[in-house]
Amino acid sequence: MSRRDEVLHAALDLLDEVGLDALTTRRLAERLGVQPGALYRHFPSKRALLTAMVEAVTMDDGTPAASGRWDEMLRSGAMEYRNRLLRHRDGARLVATGVRPDQAPAQQGWHRMIAVVRGSGLDQAGAMAAVDTVFAYANGFTIEEQARSDFPPTPAQRAERDAAFHTGLALILTGITTTASAQAAQRAEPTP
Predict the structure, then answer these.
(1) Collapsing DSSP states into helix, strand and coil, what is residue 39?
(2) 3-state SS class at 192
(3) Most buried pick, 44, 85, 103, 172, via CB within 10 A?
(4) Which pLDDT tens digit goes with each residue over 7-21?
(5) Which residues, in sequence order, are CB contacts of 115 under 8 Å at separation 6+?
(6) Cα–Cα distance, 37 to 25 (Å, whole number)
């Protein structure tokens, strides 16, 4: 493991212990037994560190999505994304800091999911909106969920929130299906 990876893992461990609001480079440096300036060898700014943390939290493993219907694949992707956010205290708030992962695997995962949703019959813009809506829902739901409960949540808390998440996700997927059907019907209409 490189020293940069050690710093990143220490930052994620510190996030789990103290939360996003108390995560500082000074505290991280203390944890690592170095001066705060030493962190800049690995991350030129706190923003760069947060970007790396977002990438670590959200990065899928590159495994192709399971084959199946587009809605099942999107549902599965949203559930896995939420699970990754829940692995870390304030994981969803970290992602909502506005830092976007720029690494190719993150971008590939995003484009792969849009291609999956295109299978619903939506055009490119509609598929992008659908994927963005589903993942924004997952992130927002998880922010609220993490604000309500302890880290990690009890099994009963997790089961209750899982059920609520699935209900909301089903509503969104129904809306996407309806929109895709309307677009398909519109394309099928003969032009006057």
Answers:
(1) helix
(2) coil
(3) 85
(4) 999 999 999 999 999
(5) 127
(6) 9
